[in-house]
């Protein structure tokens, strides 16, 4: 069972002020999950974050390894200069990744009924991902 992003925090020093922050590996994993599940688009910012900070061990621990499988080939293509960013994740891959997430991660499946309570906002957001 993934332990969750909030359990990966550390104390960071920002100009002499101690602040809670995610570990760099968790930041990269969050960038992958956000790009795949929420935005359905992989940007230069995501690429640089993943390229610099990715910790493959934390992907499995946080439950976002399936999302990374969909990003890995795109990431390599960009690194080789074969693909350009931003790049839209194909609808079929996105839908499959999302369904895999729902099936394999109980917390995601448990929150699906809450989407119905959000009302038309969710419908508009979901439809925007289909275009």
Automatic annotation (TrEMBL):
Domain of life: Archaea
Official protein name in the record: Uncharacterized protein
Organism: Thermoproteus tenax (strain ATCC 35583 / DSM 2078 / JCM 9277 / NBRC 100435 / Kra 1)
């Amino acid at each position: 069972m993934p332990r969750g992003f909030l359990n990966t925090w550390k104390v960071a020093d920002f100009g002499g002020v101690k602040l809670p922050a995610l570990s760099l590996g968790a930041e990269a994993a969050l960038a992958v999950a956000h790009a795949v599940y929420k935005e359905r688009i992989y940007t230069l910012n995501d690429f640089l974050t993943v390229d610099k900070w990715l910790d493959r061990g934390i992907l499995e621990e946080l439950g976002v390894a399936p999302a990374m499988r969909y990003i890995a080939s795109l990431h390599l293509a960009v690194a080789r200069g074969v693909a350009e960013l931003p790049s839209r994740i194909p609808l079929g891959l996105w839908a499959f990744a999302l369904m895999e997430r729902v099936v394999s991660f109980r917390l995601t499946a448990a929150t699906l009924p809450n989407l119905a309570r959000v009302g038309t906002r969710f419908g508009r957001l979901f439809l925007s991902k289909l275009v």
